[in-house]
Amino acid sequence: MLDTLYLGIGTLVLVCVNIALGSISALMNREWNWTTFWKGIIKVTIITVAFAAVWFVGWLNKDLVTVEVNGQMVNLQMAVHLILAAGFAVYAKKVVGKLKELIAKKTEDYKNSDTKTEIESDKIDAKTENSNTTKEIQA
């Protein structure tokens, strides 16, 4: 019972760290989106409540074998435990990958991407000014 609880807490922490790392990356790349952030938070909350409810129902009815996993029949508690274990592995891989990307990417890379954007917008402004000046000269 406590193993599943610890696994669930660990998976939830990994999911939250994944959201935090994605948010930091989006902020640094100037791609932050509140809608995406809140969708992630709502998704995590609903999934957590659903897992807790299904596990509780399985706890109330321990003797019922209800789910087939890889050809083996298991009760709801074991099914939740197996899904949490798989989720833990998936999110652990995602978090480690995002950490690796953040560590590997230099701060200068973020600064250069900002500078590039500023230079590109300056070029667009200069083209607009040149076309307006050309129109004034022709008139």
What is the topology, as strand order, of the major beta sheet? 1-2
- The pLDDT mean sits at 80
Quaternary organisation: single chain
Relative strand content: under 5%
Are there runs of 5+ residues with pLDDT below 50, and where? 114-119, 132-137
How many strands? 2
Shape, per Cα inertia axes: elongated
Give the count of structural domains.
2
Helical fraction equals over 70%
Strand/helix succession: HHEEHH
Main beta-sheet annotation: 2 strands, antiparallel
Secondary-structure class: mainly alpha
Tally of helical runs:
4
Distance between the termini: 82 Å
- Rg (CA only): 25 Å
Key traits:
mainly alpha; 139 residues; disordered C terminus; 83% helix; single chain; 2 domains; two-stranded antiparallel ribbon
Structure description:
This protein has 139 residues and is mainly alpha-helical. It folds into two domains: 2-105, no CATH class; 106-139. It has helices at residues 2-28, 34-60, 76-104, 107-138, and strands at 67-69, 72-74. Strand 1 and strand 2 form a beta hairpin.
